[in-house]
Amino acid sequence: MQSSFDKTPLLFKQVCVIGLGLIGASLAQAIKDNGLSERLVAVDRHVPSVDEAIKHGLLDAGSTRLTDVVAGSDLLIIAVPVQAVQAVFTDIKAAMDNGQLATDCIITDVCSTKVNIIEAAKSVFAALPTGFVPAHPIAGAENSGYHARRANLFVNHSVIICELATTSSSAIAKLQQLWEAVGATVMPMAADHHDAILAHTSHLPHLLAFNLVEQLASHDDNLDMFRYAAGGFRDFTRIAASDPKMWHDIFFANERAIISALDEYGVYLQTMRQLIIDKDSTALMGLLGRAQAARRHFGHMLASTPYTDTSAMSASYNITPSNTVSGTITIPGDKSISHRSIMLGSLATGVTNVTGFLEGEDALATLQAFRDMGVSIEGPDKGRLTIHGVGMNGLKPSKTPLYMGNSGTSMRLLAGILAAQSFDSVLTGDTSLNKRPMERVAAPLRDMGAVIQSTGHDGTAPLSITGRDTVGQPLQGVEYDMPVASAQVKSCLLLAGLWANGTTTVIQPEVSRDHTERMLSAFGYPVTVDGNRVSIEGGGTLTGGDIAVPADISSAAFFMVAAAISQGSELTLTQVGINPTRTGIIDILKLMNADISLSNETHVGGEPVADITIRSSNLQGIDIPEYLVPLAIDEFPVLFIAASCAQGRTVLTGAKELRVKESDRIAVMADGLQTLGIDCTVTEDGLIIEGKGIEGKGSNADSNEVNNSQPVFGGGHITSHHDHRIAMSFAVASLRASKPITIEGVETVNTSFPGFAELANQVGMSIEVHDSRA
Ligand code: S3P
Fold first, then answer.
1. What lines the ligand 1 site, CB under 6 Å?
2. CA–CA distance, 57 with 343 (Å, rounded to integer)
3. Which GO terms describe its biological process (predicted)?
């Protein structure tokens, strides 16, 4: 077999595997396939397994007795049932005493319990050998025995290593090398902690699976029970097909931790039983919803990946050029308002019903965080949510760090809320979010008396927040002069101000989106706005109600530009939010001569909305007024596409903030534009783009004729840098491209615009979503 890790050097002279069950034989096979040892020998009580392994060429020698084969080994791997380990230690000691083994020989095991293994070693050896390293690969399968072995069993699995005070560091390092060479990730852990964790995550589920099968099997009508047992039973009890002897041993070996896990389980079971008896629908829904979301959440959190659809990781768009779009479409809900609906709905008294909620990963991160803090939230179901508010002092500490995924808004706004809570919290995010600046909220929160640390490398997340119970006093209102026009910073401080003594005032250098202010007012909390000064008094309450989230103008922007740059196009986008603090995109496109009109203007849940119709336009390059920058802060990537199609130069200044969004949007867009043949120059705080105009050349076409627009972009490969808006912007470019465009890393589109490609195809674009992991 070809080694998959063939750069690994030979690590051992002779490895001796004691026990050729699933784990022992799989590890032996992995060692063999990866060429990690000069010789491989094994001991097993079952003669046919040993004979077969020799016949297969897996082993150089094998026996039923250790002393026959062990001489010269520099690694012993004990892979026998837990309760047989002590006898193996006795054999190993005898081999050492006979001079068959060097004293620094590494001795490890693969058993599922650790404290009792160490105890067993202590009872055999007068002093624990320096080469003794207890370990446990968290890998396995319900199949057991030599025949079930798989060399790749450990790939992408974790191996826990217990570093004892007596163990030499070279033995630990060497064993780590071995596990990494067979594809595993090594984690150090204290033995008692290991046993407690495994009791909950492995031993208890196995015990319950065996128990449920036993329960069904002992019914009189068991045949019928099994005949009609559906997927749930099959899935839940898969692990009850595991080796009974092994589990028998483990249950006794880890008795104390398992009994405590079982007792805790009993309490939870009783709670659920009582909720059913009491017909407590709200609490039961809360519990089930929390559990369902947590189940999904843990997977993402451990992998540091986005929330929904992990299968879409490493996805790309393959786009065939098209040249026109038309139709009437509805864009998904506003991301900023969706976040805030969860936050204020959770803190309110009473029930809040939300419609039009954006089921994108960013807003789902906020949703999960509040569930983690004990809020009962039903949904989302087609954009509908029911939030059972817990009141201003009803949040509970989360048992785990709050995971914000890719969402800067979740992290920064939550930092404000959490800085005021009685309990401690930790906020973390995915790799991209953990690189974004957090001191912009942490520093002013500290001015209010918050105890908050940005524990990342450079003022970045994870954020660690100390609760007010520990600090001993509430936050203090301050007047804060914001250096950047950031709605996230403003909102963070206003939210913290809800609990602060006195008045919290934020002064913004330019107007930024005001959804927090509007929604606070809608929940009955007074906010004073005086020009660029926004103030709030601490100590009030919020009252739950209904929130209708309008369509997101930031998502609509992709379709506005799509229609404006392509020929013979006309798109109507229904009931889009046109809050004046968000309409910079409309103002800028109008300055560029775009044909945009608004109709059916009305108000939905305190926010103005309208249908937006946009047609093919003879766009002109402009100098973008700086006051419009905060009002179109998220729309610049797609505006750069518009500028490339405009006649003449477009100059953006005063937009340094773009460098600290989900990616450095100035650098990343410039790279992509240049790949597609656009002449552009990066400046410190903006970008200069030489537009190619209707004729695709940059000539001085002065007619308003837009039905003969020529390509302005070539084809090519674009990297989104895992930034949703970069990916969608370059997809729009395909409407004026001469050749296909491939965009790598589009899975993050789900953060703000699930269904983007489908909607784009519906209006006439041609995007094929390719998932390299499918
Ligand atoms: C947002 C504010 C903006 C924006 C982000 C959402 C919000 O960030 O870029 O997508 O919901 O408050 P800044 O306030 O940091 O500019």
1. 336, 409, 486-488, 491, 512-513, 633-634, 657
2. 62
3. chorismate biosynthetic process; tyrosine biosynthetic process
114 is in an annotated binding site: no
665 labelled as ligand-binding? yes
Nearest CA to ligand 1 atom 16: 486
Question: How much is the pLDDT for 473?
Answer: 95
CB 715 within 8 A of CB 737: yes
Q: Are residues 494 and 631 in the same domain?
A: no
Q: Which residue lies with its CA nearest to atom 9 of ligand 1?
A: 634
* The predicted structure's pLDDT at residue 303: 62
Q: Are residues 60 and 89 in the same domain?
A: yes
- pLDDT tens digit string along 443-486? 999 999 999 999 888 899 999 999 999 999 999 999 999 999 99
Ligand 1 atom nearest residue 487's Cα? 14
User: Among 337, 413, 486, which is best to mutate for testing ligand 1, by the most ligand atoms less than 8 A from CB?
Assistant: 486
CA distances from 450 to 221, 394, 443, 453, 505 (A): 63, 19, 9, 9, 16
Smallest CA separation from ligand 1 atom 4, residue? 634
Q: Are residues 228 and 175 in the same domain?
A: no
* 183: number of Cβ within 10 Å: 18
Distance of CA 397 from the midpoint of ligand 1 (Å): 26
| Residue 156 confidence (pLDDT) | 82
Answer for the pair 707, 567: CB distance below 8 angstroms, yes or no: yes
Which residue's CA is the closest to the ligand 1 atom numbered 13? Answer: 486
Is residue 707 located within the same domain as residue 677? yes
Q: The domain spanning residue 438 has which CATH number?
A: 3.65.10.10
For ligand 1, the distance from its centroid to the CA atom of residue 308, given in whole angstroms, is 22
What pLDDT is stored for residue 295 in this prediction?
Answer: 76
Q: Please tell me the pTM assigned to this model.
A: 0.71
Ligand 1 center–CA 187 separation, angstroms: 37
Say whether both 630 and 753 belong to one domain: yes
Q: Is 436 marked within a binding site?
A: yes
**What is the per-residue DSSP string for 399-422?**
SSPEE-TT-HHHHHHHHHHHHTSS
Nearest to 438 by CA among 422, 457, 423, 424: 457
Is residue 488 part of an annotated ligand binding site? yes
For residue 582, tell me if it sits in a domain.
no
Q: What is the pLDDT of residues 35-92, one digit of tens each?
A: 999 999 999 999 999 999 999 999 999 999 999 999 999 999 999 998 899 999 999 9
**The two three-digit tokens of residue 347, written as one number:** 């803190």
Structural domain count, the chain:
4
Which residues of the chain have a pLDDT value below 50?
1-6, 309-313, 699-703, 774
Which CATH number do you get for residue 247? 1.10.3660.10
d(CA 635, CA 552): 11
Q: Is residue 588 part of a domain?
A: no
Rounded to whole angstroms, how far apart are CA atoms 66 and 83? 17
460 — phi, psi (to 5°)? Answer: -120, 170
Does 384 share its domain with 447? yes
Ligand 1 atom having least distance to the Cα of 336:
11
Q: What's the gap between Cα 716 and its chain centre?
A: 29
**Is 285 within a domain?**
no
Expressed as residue numbers, the domain containing 701 is: 315-319+611-771
Residues 397 and 716: their CA atoms lie apart, in Å, by 49
User: Annotated catalytic residue: which of 220, 634, 685, 771?
Assistant: 634
Report how far residue 362's alpha carbon sits from residue 366's, in angstroms, rounded to the nearest whole number.
Answer: 7
User: What does the alpha-carbon distance between residue 767 and residue 773 come to, in Å, rounded to a whole number?
Assistant: 18
CA–CA dist 290, 370 (Å, integer): 10
Beta pairing partners, 691: 648
